[in-house]
User: Fold this.
Amino acid sequence: MKKTVVSFKDDKMIIEEKSGICCIDYNHIVGIFCDHPYLKMKILDKKDKYIFHTIKEIFYLLPDDFIICNRSSIVNLHFFSSLETKNHQYFLYLKTGDKIPVSNEYRKIVKEKIRKYLLL
Assistant:
């Protein structure tokens, strides 16, 4: 499969596909989630967008407002509501009502990034 061409300009993600080009404001991207073999971008008040990339490829291109929670989930901290633990498992809750598991591998990074974000 051919990868979707994704580029970034200012505060926008530009996605080029066979069907056309679309521009998405970072502040409208709730999260990006693995939906093999694609990534599903959950966009506020719009239809989900699918792109063909790996989670890490996209993560390293995103601004600091995005955080990787596990091997299959990236979320936008603008939608952060709370970080809670239950039975030794951490969950990130979003203002949209989504509940995202935080893996042990990313737990410390997630907590640090949330602290920094909340102090801004």
Observations:
- The chain has a mean pLDDT of 91.
- Helices lie at 55-59, 107-119.
